[in-house]
Amino acid sequence: MIKTAGLTKIYQTSSVAVHALRGVSIEVKKGEFVSIMGPSGSGKSTLMNLLGCLDKPSGGTYTLDGTDVSNLSEDELAAIRNRKIGFVFQTFNLLPRLTALRNVELPMLYAGVEPEERYTRAKTALERVGLANRLHHYPNQLSGGQNQRVAIARALVNNPAVILADEPTGNLDTLSGEEIMAVFQELNAEGATIVLVTHEREIAEHTQRVLTLRDGLLQRDEQIKDPLNAKEILQQLRNKAGDRE
Amino acid sequence: MNLWESVRVALDGIMANKLRSFLTTLGIIIGIAAVITVVAIGQGGRAVIMGEFEKIGTNIYMVWVDWRADDPPTGREIQKEDAAIIKRLSPAVSYLAPVNTAIRPVKGSEDQKSARLIGTTADYIHIRNLEIIRGRFLTAQDDNGCRRVAVVDEELARELYGKTDPIGQKLMIRNTPLVVVGLLKSEKSMFSFGTSKPVYIPISTWQYVFHNYYISQLEGKAVSREEVPLAVEQTLKILERRHNTEGRYQSVTLEDEMESANKVTGILTLIISAVAGISLLVGGIGVMNIMLVSVTERVREIGIRMALGARRRDILMQFLVEAVMLCLLGGLVGIVLGVGGAYLVAKLAHWPPLVSWGTVAIAVLFSAVIGIFFGIYPANKAARMNPIEALRRE
């Protein structure tokens, strides 16, 4: 699904050239749930921007869903972002003036989907993340966890090849974070390919494979033999809360 | 994303800041309202002036001696007989009368008033469409016999004679007594405002009273509006030939007068429209200013939209449509106010409310153009943003 070969990115500032990525070759297969870890400055944000087609690599190739996207034009990249990639951000990045439903409709707006179909698909996506009764709420009327689920619904509404989640639990408490991971695991079980960037080892252990970056290079590629199950953890958390009461 | 979607997104943006949007478009609102009202006032005023001309009759003309010619005038350039001869020779001329005018005090039984003494012939009543209320107008016999008779404006007569019936009464002009033989309906025209009221006497009597035998001008009426140029041409030609001169006479037609009146109202409308246009320009700059603020405020939104697949041209369209919508909404409010203003003025001034729908259409078009012109820079600024940086911005 995702395949990069010797991906490099050099930022040219006025005085020095910063080598953010020095040749990263990774492969993510269809249906995989992969996390990318690394300390700040390791290049994981840069890699994320490149994987998300928000930026172009300085060198190397990037093939997404069978298409070489390393040298596409800006408009072509926009189309790729629209159809092949679903973004989930740390800060949710919903438009505050739009209801949950219309936020989820946004990617389809740029895909040229007809209004009726947009509505049904957005509704289905929101139902899938458990927000069937929050369609017409505005982001400020929803909790952080709910907002992130709206964002996930938005990410998957165009049936993307891959969902890119950048610290999706970073702004959430443990319980909400675990709920979000449960949603991701469920989507993954249904066949979605997910790449998740995090700096929390515990979150990374929910995924099947952890890629660790350091100084712009891939340092480790480890398989998680027995990923944490978010649903079980949620159950334990809830039981604990129940015991306290 | 199609245009309708863009319009919906733009309306969301405008409605999110209602007060700011309103204040932003105020310049456009005032500009458009001013243009529409001013043009309507101009047109209404012109219609009134033209109506007055129509009342007088659009096929009349005047001929007089050109005082600026090299040879000093002899006072004999126009003879009383010329009128009758020209009328007989030119089929385009239906009426032609010599006219002398002087402002003099006239005395009735009750009072003395300043009047416009007009010496002329029987044709004059047809040229000016005068209306006799009682008695009669001047006749050819009055002129031939140099009769001491006068036809008086009814309002003037009331001032001169009070409740006494003026017909048959004595009217003193200088030291000459005349007899009132007819009463004319007062002219209610915007042109007659403030001028002395008229007293008509035979041209021969006028010449006798003032001991002056020159004739200052001829007033004529062509058989139709189309024949006016021919009537003027033939009148001049016959005059030149009879008096063996060249380029001695001048003429004016009501058509000419209407044209110059039109020109004046046109210039006034143009000037005020230019002022309104400046208001529109200032309004447009205001829109650009607010759109720039709006783009800066919504950097993150732009980043999100780009991440979700908006192309640069989608972002450009979004902000451009928003600017155009702002201007169009301002334009619509301006049209409502402008048309309302036009009707109000028309009601107060008793004019026809002539709202020019062409102007309204131009106003709508113009506000859209302002939106595009002043929206393109901010929209382009938004579209050129780097999505990564835009997303990072708080």
Describe the structure.
The complex is a heterodimer of chains A (245) and B (394). Chain A has 8 helices and 11 strands. Chain A is globular and about 55 Å long. Helix content of chain A is 38%, strand content 24%. With 245 residues, chain A is an alpha/beta fold. A 6-stranded mixed beta sheet of chain A has the order 7-8-9-4-10-11. In chain A, strands 1, 2, 3, 5 and 6 form a 5-stranded antiparallel beta sheet that branches. Chain B is an alpha+beta fold. Chain B folds into 2 domains: 184 residues, no CATH class; 181 residues, no CATH class. Chain B is 58% helix and 18% strand. Chain B has 13 helices and 10 strands. Chain B has a 6-stranded mixed β-barrel, surrounded by 4 helices. In chain B, strand 6 and strand 7 form a beta hairpin. Classes of the chains: A alpha/beta (245), B alpha+beta (394). At the A-B interface, helix 2 and helix 3 of A face helix 1, helix 10, helix 11 and helix 13 of B.
What does this entry show, briefly?
The complex is a heterodimer of chains A (245) and B (394). Chain A is globular and about 55 Å long.
Number of strands of chain A: 11
| Ends apart, CA distance between termini of chain A | 47 Å
Taking all residues together, what is the mean pLDDT of chain A?
Answer: 93
Helical percent range of chain A?
25-40%
Largest sheet of chain A: 6 strands, mixed
Report low-confidence residues of chain B grouped into runs of 5 or more: none
User: Could you give a short account of the major beta sheet of chain B?
Assistant: 6 strands, mixed, barrel
CATH third-level topology of chain A: Rossmann fold
Query: What's the order of the H and E elements of chain A?
Result: EEEEHEEHEHHHEHEHEEH
Count helical runs of chain B. Answer: 13
**What is the gyration radius of chain A calculated from CA atoms?**
18 Å
Class inferred from helices and paired strands of chain A: alpha/beta
The structural class of chain B is alpha+beta
State the shape of chain B. elongated
Element order of chain B: H for helix, E for strand? HHEHEEHEHEHEEEHEHEHHHHH
User: How many beta-strand elements of chain B?
Assistant: 10
Query: What is the gyration radius of chain B calculated from CA atoms?
Result: 34 Å
Instruction: Show unreliable segments of chain A.
Output: none
Question: What is the spatial order of strands in the main beta sheet of chain A?
Answer: 7-8-9-4-10-11
**Domains of chain A, number:** 1
